[in-house]
Write a structure and sequence with these properties.
flat; disordered C terminus; mainly alpha
Length: 312
């Protein structure tokens, strides 16, 4: 583990303190957390069949943010060596030695403990326990076992990123209903096309770090084919939620799904011709797709409110 010699108090400038604060924030990977939270609120709205208590939404999002931040910070601790080897990640705080490894480890553990305590106190034990389970799965199963050993790492490891919808549902209902499992599946099948498109772009990075992402160990044609397969399953799976929703969700799930499939097939066609293609288009589109589907779910749930009465 690395360590740093603390500077005298009078030499710690405000810009220095700000930089340290930003480094700890960077450990939590805020951009990833944003995408996770986009899925949590619609899941809560579907569970409520309307708009849940603003306080419950706020507390669930805060607890979820701490849980995701904990998992991401601990991931940075375990992956500090390979992050330093990859161009895409070498700017992260531990790779740059901006934050001591010991401090990052304590930071991640404390965030995890706080997320459990907060969610238990403000929602229920089930939601709090699932948050801790997601942290442990992401760090112990994905980061420490799967990531460096199998090309299927992101397929199974991505299950941790599916948990926010289940946590959001359970925060409202106290249980896990079948719509929560369907939403889990949408994100589960979305994850491989999302990350494999990114890994196609940064294949050399993953290869240099010794991470056997599918694009590292398989041909581009095989990867593109797998992206198409998972994309079809994702879109078809998203339609399983239609019986629990309405026409707004059904329309957006179908239209955005067709849109995604068109781009997935285009990438496959380009790769089959022996061209490099632009997998990052599909990567960015995948973020848009997931946002559209879950925003449509939120709108659909809000429209199910009675005309009279106020949900708060």
């Amino acid at each position: 583990m690395s360590s740093v010699i603390p500077l005298p108090a009078d030499t710690r400038s405000a810009p220095g303190r700000k930089a340290a604060l930003l480094a700890y924030v960077a450990l939590t990977k805020p951009r990833i957390i944003e995408l996770l939270l986009v899925t949590t609120v619609p899941a809560m709205m579907l569970a409520e069949r309307g708009i849940p208590s603003p306080w419950l939404v706020l507390t669930t999002l805060l607890g979820g943010t701490m849980a995701a931040g904990s998992a991401n910070a601990l991931n940075c601790v375990v992956d500090a060596d390979i992050d330093a080897l990859m161009k895409r990640t070498r700017g992260r705080p531990l790779a740059q030695h901006v934050v001591p490894v010991r401090n990052a480890l304590v930071f991640g553990v404390v965030l995890g403990v706080l997320s459990f305590a907060w969610l238990w106190a403000t929602t229920n034990l089930l939601a709090a326990s699932m948050a801790v389970g997601a942290i442990l799965f992401y760090v112990l199963v994905y980061t420490m076992i799967l990531k460096r050993r199998t090309s299927q790492n992101i397929v199974w490891g991505g299950a941790a990123g599916c948990m926010p919808v289940v946590i959001g549902w359970s925060a409202v209902t106290g249980d896990v209903g079948w719509p929560a499992l369907v939403m889990f599946g949408v994100i589960f099948f979305w994850t491989p096309p999302h990350f494999w498109a990114l890994a196609m772009k940064f294949r050399d990075d993953y290869a240099a770090a010794g991470v056997p992402m599918l694009p590292v160990v398989a041909t581009p044609r095989h990867v593109a084919k797998q992206i198409v397969v998972y994309s079809w399953v994702m879109v078809l799976w998203s339609l399983l939620l239609v019986p629990a929703t309405g026409w707004v969700y059904a329309a957006f799930a179908l239209l955005s799904g067709v849109w995604f499939l068109v781009f997935a097939h285009r990438l496959h066609a380009v790769v089959r011709r022996g061209e490099a293609g632009n997998p990052m288009k599909l990567f960015h589109l995948s973020n848009t797709y997931l946002t559209l589907v879950f925003v449509a779910l939120a709108v659909d749930s809000a429209l199910s409110l009675p005309v009279t009465g106020w949900p708060f």
